[in-house]
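Can't paste images in this forum, so I'm doing it all in text. The chain is below; anyone willing to post the predicted structure tokens underneath?
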Amino acid sequence: MGTGSKKFLLSKGLDNYFIGVYNAYKFIGRFFKEAFKSPFHFREIINQCFEIGLKALPLITLTGFITGIVFTKQSRPSLETFGATSWLPSLISIAILRALASLVTALICSGKVGSSIGAELGSMRVTEQIDAMEVSAINPFKFLVTTRVLATTITVPILALYCGFVALLGSFVNINAHEATSFISFFEHGFDTITFLDIFTSVTKSIFFGFTIGIVGCYKGYNASSGTVGVGRAANQAVVLSMFLVFIEEVVIVQVSNWIRLY
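Text version of the structure:
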């Protein structure tokens, strides 16, 4: 392959990248435009919240409980070295409420919910159901995209708080089995070091995570092409991209919250 062909391919790749960024920007802008215009489809939003929560709840329950147990088991030997096992409830509470609960929930929802949204909208696109909705004088973007993004933005923070509670229960089971700590004593010691900023940061992260999962899944599914192959590609890209963006947002928000905590 000659130098000219390489330059052409590089130029074409850059063009496609910037076109993709521009299309994503337009898609997000259209969402905010449609989100504040009637009709609002409250029933569909509630239905999507129920679907998202129901699909993710069993996996989040199991994962959260196991996370609490495993993190406690891994942390105990280090604290035992310094004779500080009484600090376990505080350590686990800080780790779970500041980082693990929201991040674990977001990753599960990226895989479970993001792929589902991408595949569902992708199949509707390639089978021309979205085009049929436009012909029927229904705004498919508002009914399909706006409702799902709002639903993930609402549901993911609720699931994250639930995941944190279940993870603390798993930690309590492990600590109770070793130190016979009571339920009330565990939570009193655990929440001694938790501040309002920790809860606020966790909820804020979850809101951003939920919006990201919803908008990425909808964008990939709504713009799917190439038949059934495109549907699978849209679902896969929705999972990979949403997980990547979740980690980027995690780093940024944690850094910002640390700055606030310092000042």
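The longest helix spans residues 42-81. The chain has eight helices and no strands.
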